[in-house]
Task: structure prediction
Amino acid sequence: MAQFRVCPDSGFYFDRSAESLMKVNAVAGVVSLLIAGILALGVILTRWQDVHLLPADLFYQVLTAHGINALIFWVIFFEIAVLYFASSTLLRSRLAAPGWAWAGFALMVIGAVMNNVAVMQGNSSVMMTSYVPMQAAPHFYLGLILFAVGALIGCFVFLGTLVLAKDDKTYDGSLPLVVFGALTATIIAIFTIASGAIILVPTFLWSVGYINHIDAEMYRIIWWALGHSSQQINVAAHVSIWYLITGILFGARPMSEKVSRFAFLLYIFFLQLASAHHILVDPGVSSEWKIFNTSYAMYLAVLASMIHGLTVPGAMEVAQRSKGYTKGLFEWLRKAPWGNPVFSGFFFALVIFGFIGGITGVVMGTEQINLIIHNTIYVPAHFHATVAVGTTLTFMALTYLLIPVLFRRALFMPWMAKLQPYVFSLGMTIMILFLLGAGTLGVSRRHWDMDFTGAMLSFDYPGTAYMMVAVGGIGGVLGVVGGAMFLIVTVGSLLFGKKLEPSAGLFQGFCGLPLADSVYNVEQPPRLERAEPVEHHHDGFEAPGTFVLALALLVCFVVYYAINWDYLSSVWPIG
Amino acid sequence: MSSFQPPADRIWWQVPVGKQEIIWAGIALVWCLIMFFMMPYWHVYGKQNLSTEAYQTNAEKYGAAVEAFVEEYQTGVDEQSGMPIVTPPAGSDIYMLGRLWQWYPILNLEKGKSYRLHLSSLDWQHGFSLQPVNINLQVVPGYEMVINVAPDQAGEFTVICNEFCGIGHHTMLGKIHVKEN
Result:
């Protein structure tokens, strides 16, 4: 029985079971994002002191659920969909062990629901980090464990599909770069999930009473090998998607396969060390350990990101120049399809991830500078630049691309889709910049009340700190509006979007049902051929505009880094 | 197209790399190394380096050490909070503990003098956040951290808790007073 269909618009071949699994994982991800987005409004409207919406207990409960749904469930559900797309669709291969893939998905859903229920019941407001010895209900940990096991099965289905594709000779030569990047994300994910199991399984046993003590410092060190590395899965995944999007929109090819793959390899070797970022002001950890780990061994993972920062837009510039956009340094960028949300979403994600998320991450991960930043609201501001914009907006851009291709629906309210990346990026950027400022003034993260109502002692933050959090609040609300626009477009497309031929019905979209049988009329797709050879000319600067942008990044980086050392040097001497 | 197609050259790792990427990777590597060596450099020439002195402890032991410290050097009681005010001699070992939801006791220090500050928690994790100086430390139960502090400003300073520690987290404040000498 033939099991592939070919998308008449994009030319992608979809394996029937992979297609259904991509749909359900993407839908589950978007549902998690919906929950996280609604909760985000509760968080931001409470932190904004003039509004101060929620009471303390509800605030911490909402904050816990917001963090877990956004940072774990949304990104990992979506990433599993991306892995199936990268292995099965891009390699034109049947999916390995679809039964296992469904079992994995079921576990992830059960785990996500169980964890959310635990938080909603009210006695598991322990934040995403669930630091011991503060204890959550057992099903809080069990939910996370089941979710992780499900995700791990998804990783192995991805690896199995790579093996199948190799055996079936569905492609010629080496893995495409995008698939190579997805493989990087998978390897990091397996490391991450193993770390999670090492710490969450004993913590679960502790919560039900089989273990009587979990060392708080050990928990922190191992938990962060889960907590931080899970965000590195996102980095590898969204960088891969950047290469995919520039390939699809511009026909861009990597400037150098060797350089881009080497950069991904550096991620595998060094990104995980970043769990040390969270341990820099902890008791009893040696300076040598901190310096080596927090710098990813001499910043080699930062080097990797800086390389991608040049090669992703550089590939686009080369492609645009070959199409005749050669005037000046930036015609290739000015003439880009700014009205296409796939492009604008990708490009804003790239810029905000690099300029804000990347730079602040390195600065606050510097051993000594962390003293003036640890646990201030600077930290969530940083990871909203990396995850809530870098990863999330990239996934949103990819969703706009996939709705017609995978779900066979035209975009609903395309004007709203067109505006969405602008509104979301603007709101989030305002929020991030002002919360970075507030953090520099010492405003604490995970804190219900800047006025310290009910405290036996008192403290007044400077007026500027209140102002910064308030402006950040306005930005955050705008960001939530941008997020809502994304959800209106995606859910609207599945419900009301114009059906494309071959079309998908309502439940086919939401529940991952396959299209009509007659559509799956390809027994085995033709082999994926190697890219057309090009002449290698490496004498000049192929992408001068990108090089200038990269230098601008470097200047911002150096200046901001120096400013922070200067700030550190002004605080009390400690040793 | 080729970002999602197999590379054109079968032996792609032998294709020479463009000048632009080599230059950028070189610049980036140099910057990475500068950032890396900045940290050991600061250990030698900077004045803000966190000590790594720490001991395993427990709530009983640490609580008793803090009480003995308070008894020895107490000079008054804060009217607002009823908390003891402790004025230890310059250069001595001083103690502060975090518990739900206070930083105990209130410390009176002298500007320009160095102290060995002991920190631990009696219950959950807490965050020692000294404001408005903005020095932030993680306080972990079971671990007693010892850091050398040398206040170089006089005035009233507040310790905020910046690690979530339950419903009263926002009420957890402490005080350090620094006198001109």
Remarks:
- Residues 19-45 of chain B form the longest helix (27 residues).
- The domain at 54-179 of chain B is CATH 2.60.40.420 (Immunoglobulin-like).
- The two ends of chain B are 72 Å apart (CA to CA).
- The longest strand of chain B covers residues 93-99.
